[in-house]
Design goal:
Chain lengths: 259, 439
């Protein structure tokens, strides 16, 4: 099945598989997408695993082992365009919570024979290891953003991805602001849009699963959380979740930790 | 597919290594070592990097736990949300309203439909029909693949309406839901679910016609069991060899072993060793609690408990699709939006265990909380950890049937045998390679 269609590969590192599953979850678009590109390496979906070079490589997951630190170098060498998908690949993911702890102690907590386990001290995003051409945010990513990225790359244009905050999406949905009206702590003002303001639409504060927007004013938001009565450990936990290692959130959680 | 075969002519050893097992969730490998017609070794290696969830849950507030544990698995996040929520509610002594209980069952129906449709058609059927993947299969079986996608979509729609999105939904919480859907939102799904029910019955007929290896095993099956209903969220833990315990007694009877070749712990019954969880276990232990329409679909293709051939798990999954669609329709018809979507939960020093039926089988969680509601200790035993030893045991017994076959055939059939379990390796370490060595 060789063709002139762009060759696409999907690689996984430390992650939950959810972001690559988003491609299979695009039920209405999957067969059309599969018709426009040649998916030559996608172990979650196929036994067919062809060697590179690849035109577009989607990378899910963070780097947490020596083996994976080597593997991402090989993946980069085989890939014309490398796109990271999801919070693990773009910021280290939830497993980056180890970065503030002694990883050996963590391994001892989970495994009876820690010497069987090989793991790095830090969980780090792909961009800390190799150049990344494009990042798709989210824990998980929004499948329509993934299709937009694939379509744009096929058409040779820049993908249209938002860089504003969740607040804009909330206003578009005409949601009542939970932070202002109810006093609910909400990470919406500092979180990149893309989810469609999901949590506020479901009656809860945004918990930041799309990670920080570029110009996030986390200090101002933390101050507002204090006004709403949040304690420093609560503020620390709020910034320390699915994109904890992204520098804006890292800085904010460390500030709360040291106050 | 990255398979390497090493043949050593002097010793007659053949090593088959499948370095990256395809069509499973996560990263694993299989090593098989053969000498002549003897199996020297079988190892299912899970090298999915450890993510250490149980460690970083410490110090988090109980209200954060369902969102965090969902991130263990993108395929079955609802299972992780449900098991953690039930464990924490048991710890805190929270009683939920019947409307919330029914809504959780409906939410779970969505995940079963989505996950089973994915596995039956897109991950497992290509093995039976001789394709590398569903895209290749679509070239010759377009109507079936379209049916699969539509089925999967309705499962995802149900999850999306209730939970906000398909993967890592945001609405479920300790005490209930952040938001309960309106009757009208759910009723809008009813026609499509009626189609899905018919499509699921057609799926049972389709997959029952696949060729199955003659392979039956004397399994100990383990699942939840509830006196009135096919199990999702509630019940006692029972087995086909007489185990009948409350969820809180799980760790008295089951233990996890750490083996060198895997980043996933092997769970065994203390007294008796390996066991099986998942569709076969649920079906065999709870057949009478299936609704009439699901039992009829099974009867029609001659499927009766006990089903002892793991390759027929694909048929049982299809029967469970019928169940999940019928149950979803019933729950939507009876749905009344709760007055309050959640009940208040007050922190106290406590311990609670919870277990629910993930699409792949029993998922056990236990938490110890302090007086301010922070997690002191968490324990999570995913279905694939529980099945991992059993998968290796199956391979030891199944490979002799294949031993005279070419390496490619042995490799493919071994992979198929692993996929019988719909293993979720992201869960179990929280991938699959096959390595076959012939001596």
């Amino acid at each position: 099945m060789s063709s002139n269609k762009p060759k696409v590969a999907v690689f996984k590192f430390a992650s939950c598989d959810g972001c690559q599953l988003s491609l299979l979850d695009a039920e209405d678009e999957l067969l059309a997408v599969a018709g426009a590109i040649d998916i030559v390496y996608f172990p979650e979906a196929s036994r067919r695993m062809l060697k590179g070079p690849y035109d577009v490589t989607l990378v899910e997951g963070s780097i947490t082992t020596h083996h994976d630190a080597d593997r991402i170098q090989q993946v980069r060498r085989q890939s014309k365009l490398l796109v990271t998908i999801g919070a693990c690949a773009t910021s280290g993911g939830i497993q980056a919570l180890r970065n503030w702890k002694d990883v050996n102690e963590f391994v001892h907590l989970v495994y009876a024979k820690p010497d069987y386990i090989s793991t790095l001290k830090l969980s780090t995003p792909i961009a800390e290891h190799v150049p990344v051409d494009l990042e798709v945010r989210g824990c998980p990513i929004n499948k329509y953003q993934l299709i937009e990225v694939i379509s744009a790359l096929l058409a040779g244009r820049k993908p249209n991805l938002p860089s504003y905050s969740v607040c804009i999406e909330c206003k578009r949905r005409a949601n009542v602001c939970l932070a202002v009206a109810v006093g609910t702590p909400c990470l919406g003002p500092v979180t990149q849009a893309g989810c469609g303001a999901l949590c506020p639409s479901y009656g809860r504060g945004c918990y930041g699963c799309f990670g920080p927007m570029e110009s996030a004013n986390t200090a101002a938001l933390a101050a507002q959380f204090r006004v709403l009565g949040a304690t420093e450990p609560e503020i620390q936990r709020a910034f320390r979740s699915y994109s904890a290692w992204a520098w804006q959130f890292r800085q904010a959680s460390e500030e709360a930790q040291h106050r | 597919m990255s398979t390497t075969t090493e043949v050593s002519p002097k010793s007659g050893i053949i090593n088959i290594k499948v370095d990256c097992l395809a069509r499973v969730e996560g990263e694993g490998a299989l090593y098989v070592k053969l000498k002549g017609e003897r199996i020297m070794d079988v190892k299912l290696k899970i090298f999915e990097p450890p993510r250490l969830f149980e460690a970083f849950l410490r110090g988090r507030h109980f209200s954060e736990v369902p969102d965090i544990t969902a991130r263990i698995c993108g395929i079955c996040p609802i299972a992780y949300q449900m098991s953690s929520i039930h464990a924490i509610e048991r710890a805190l002594g929270v009683e939920i309203k019947p409307e919330i209980r029914a809504l959780r069952r409906l939410f779970y129906c969505g995940e079963w439909i989505e996950s089973h449709a994915l596995h039956v058609y897109m991950l497992h059927a290509p093995d039976f029909l001789g394709y590398q993947d569903v895209i290749e299969m679509a070239a010759n079986h377009k109507p079936e693949v379209e049916q699969a996608l539509r089925l999967k979509k309705i499962g995802n729609e149900l999850v999306r309406i209730i939970g906000g999105r398909e993967i890592h939904p945001v609405s479920a919480c300790v005490g209930g839901f952040h938001r309960a859907p309106s009757k009208a939102e759910l009723a809008a799904l009813r026609d499509e679910l009626a189609w899905a029910l018919d499509a699921s019955i057609a799926t049972v007929r389709l997959v029952a016609g696949f060729p199955f290896p003659n392979f039956e095993q004397d399994y100990e099956f383990v699942s939840l069991s509830h006196p009135e209903e096919y199990p999702f969220n509630e019940g006692r833990i029972v087995s086909s060899r007489g185990l009948d315990i409350d969820i809180s007694q799980y760790e008295d009877h089951f233990m996890e072993q750490h083996v060198k070749h895997s980043n996933a712990l092997h769970s065994v019954l203390r007294e008796r060793g390996s066991y099986m969880v998942g569709p076969l276990a649920r079906f065999n232990l709870n057949y009478e609690r299936l609704p009439e329409v699901a039992r009829q679909a099974a009867e029609e293709v001659g499927l009766r408990p006990p089903v002892l051939n793991p390759f027929k798990s694909i048929v049982v999954r299809a029967v469970e699709l019928v169940f999940a669609c019928a149950e979803a329709i019933r729950l939507i018809d009876e749905y009344r939006a709760p007055e309050e979507p959640k009940v208040q939960c007050v922190a106290r020093p406590s311990t609670g265990a919870g277990a629910t039926e993930a699409p792949r089988g029993l998922l056990y969680h236990r938490y110890v909380l302090d007086s301010s509601g922070l997690v002191l200790e968490g324990k999570i035993v995913p279905p694939t950890s529980q099945n991992q030893k059993r998968i290796e045991d199956d391979l030891w017994r199944f490979i002799p049937q294949l031993i005279t076959q070419p390496v490619e055939e042995i490799t493919l059939r071994c992979e198929q045998a692993i996929r019988n379990y719909d293993p979720c390796i992201s869960c179990a370490t929280h991938h699959l390679k096959v390595h076959l060595e012939r001596l």
